[in-house]
Amino acid sequence: MVDRDDVLTAAQRALNADPAASMTAVAEAAGISRATLHRHVDSREALLVELGTRSLDQWEQRLDDVDVEALAASDDADRIRAALEELVLGYVDDSDVFGFALTDQVILANAALEARTQVLADREAVLFAAAQSVGVLRTDLPARWFGHAIYGLLVSGRDAVRLGDVARRDLGRLVLSSLLTGIATP
Amino acid sequence: MVDRDDVLTAAQRALNADPAASMTAVAEAAGISRATLHRHVDSREALLVELGTRSLDQWEQRLDDVDVEALAASDDADRIRAALEELVLGYVDDSDVFGFALTDQVILANAALEARTQVLADREAVLFAAAQSVGVLRTDLPARWFGHAIYGLLVSGRDAVRLGDVARRDLGRLVLSSLLTGIATP
């Protein structure tokens, strides 16, 4: 008996491999019939929104795990730097699981998910501003840019691994190092 | 009389604003009827492939403009550094025009466009390898990673401007500076 969670996980894997996968292809990947898949989710859009919700749950969990508000209030540069690195490495792991959701148009266009994304981005921006004020992040870049820069490099990383240009094992270091110190020779 | 080029440009603008825009919405944005739009392009997929082709034409033009192969063979660090900066700033301008195409699933899944993307990425990778050998780019990162890193920051930049987090005017500098020297305080 395949439960709902198994179905969603299989769907996620199928969509990571082919973001345009149809419900038929998703059902096949989950080893169930199209009818069974439809008993779990009403439509392809409902499936995507559910997977988008899961990816935001995971993002929220990462922010809770580092206790982002307390951290931002701490004025402790070492702790803030360490937590930023932990967050980015965690996001890289998550983007391996939720890869397709990063750029899926249905997910990005969903108003409820967009509103929740904004709330999480706002929480993160407080941390970035604190990181600037304790000297961890550059003050000549806008605090709201950092979240976008991280997001972009997660998209980079997902694609680089998918196309075989970068080893999965190296990805966390590549993303973190490129993000923090850039790709030019110092 | 609206010509094909006007139609494609209007379609591009409509899809940048809403990547999920239907053919009806695209026709409306172009100020023509759905029937007229269909006289210019057979289907939504054909339209997307045509716009994807235009974005690759533009990428190819940028590589030709800096004469990427001659440059890579030049061993001239200053010229290579200047050309890299010119390329990235050019890509930022192009991503303003072709924004939605960066992450459109139909475009990315098209085999012909994917093959051509690979050819252009290969040309670029030769330049990155040369930039590493003359000391412009870090040698502890794989040459094939740089193109992905640039691509990701173009996605970042497009989204940051679309969401109003960054001014369009600042974007070239933000992307280039984040790419080359990172977001951490040196």
Q: Mean pLDDT score of chain A, rounded?
A: 95
Secondary-structure-based class of chain A equals mainly alpha
Largest sheet of chain A: none
CATH architecture of the largest domain in chain A: Orthogonal Bundle
- What is the number of helical segments of chain A per DSSP (H or I, 4+ residues)? 10
Largest interface: A-B, 44 and 44 residues
Outline the low-pLDDT stretches of chain A: none
Structural domain tally of chain A: 2
- One letter per element, helices H and strands E, the order of chain A comes to HHHHHHHHHH
**Tell me, what is the CATH class of the largest domain in chain A?**
Mainly Alpha
Q: What oligomeric arrangement do these chains adopt?
A: homodimer
Describe the protein.
2 copies of one chain form a homodimer. The first copy, chain A, contains 10 helices and no strands. The first copy, chain A, folds into 2 domains: 1-41, Arc Repressor Mutant, subunit A; 44-181, Tetracycline Repressor, domain 2 (Orthogonal Bundle). With 186 residues, chain A is mainly α. Chain A has helices spanning 4-17, 23-30, 34-40, 44-65, 68-74, 77-98, 105-109, 111-133, 143-162, 171-181. The model of chain A has no long low-confidence stretch (mean pLDDT 95). Chain A is elongated, with a radius of gyration of 18 Å. In chain A, helix 1 (4-17) crosses helix 2. At the A-B interface, helix 7, helix 9 and helix 10 of A face helix 7, helix 9 and helix 10 of B. Chains A, B: Keywords: DNA-binding. Chains A, B: Residues 1-59 form the HTH tetR-type domain. Chains A, B: InterPro entries: Homeodomain-like_sf, HTH_TetR.
